[in-house]
Amino acid sequence: MSSRALSGIWKRIEIVGDVAIIGIPFNMSPEEVRPFAMDVMRENSKVRAVWGRPRGTEGNFRLSHYVHICGEMRSETLYRENGATFLLDFRKVFFSQTLSYEHRRISSLVRRGETVINMFSGYGPFSILSKIHGAGKVYSMDINPYAYYYTMVNVELNKAYGVLPILGDAFKRIYEVEKADRIICPLPERDEEAFEVAKQRVKGGGESFIHVFAEVKVNKGENPVKEALRKFKGDFARVVRSVKPGTYHVVVDVRV
Ligand SMILES: C[S@@+](CC[C@H](N)C(=O)[O-])C[C@H]1O[C@@H](n2cnc3c(N)ncnc32)[C@H](O)[C@@H]1O
Question: Residue with the nearest Cα to atom 27 of ligand 1?
Fold first, then answer.
């Protein structure tokens, strides 16, 4: 297949620092994507490596499976987003540029001095941006040791010293820290469980918030936002991504 014929996959490319990631369509092999990947490297002098990503994430750590296509055999990169800098290895920690809008939206809601708990922090984007936007303290939890490591590095890179990385099961560790003004729960697969725990650890009184990432299933013609608001009785919701036909990840802001 010529690289011209592959140009339809341009929209599937993400540039993450000096690495490019190509979403591999269902009907193509990594070999078929290679000529296109070589073009990407030729046309972007800063791109040092190209990786392919078939759809989907797996396991507790929500990791994608990546295939090396060309360039350096390296998946750790410095990534800039919303004015912050993050070191991450997308083969070791969950990474999705689709979340960048939510990183900005939620962190910009943080009020000066707030205590925030991020139950599922990954490499730390919600936590670090919340601190940059004025949070007092951010408890930043993840069960993946690499997420903990990269969050520590990213706290240093951004001098976001009120962020406290915590390694472990957030469903247990959350009881070891003080109650929070705002709790972020970005784990759609366990949305109801996370919401129940967050309700117990949020200060309440009408000025606290839980941001729960919900997984909702709808029939054709039904609105996933309405369904998510019905499930979590929130004030605001928006679709983050479509996972497969009829299944969506929707973020819901709930005032408590
Ligand atoms: C969707 S990812 C988080 C994305 C991240 N907040 C971001 O914006 O890039 C979910 C994260 O939850 C973590 N995780 C899964 N189960 C967990 C648990 N029981 N306790 C803490 N972290 C958990 C995974 O390791 C993964 O990093």
Answer: 122
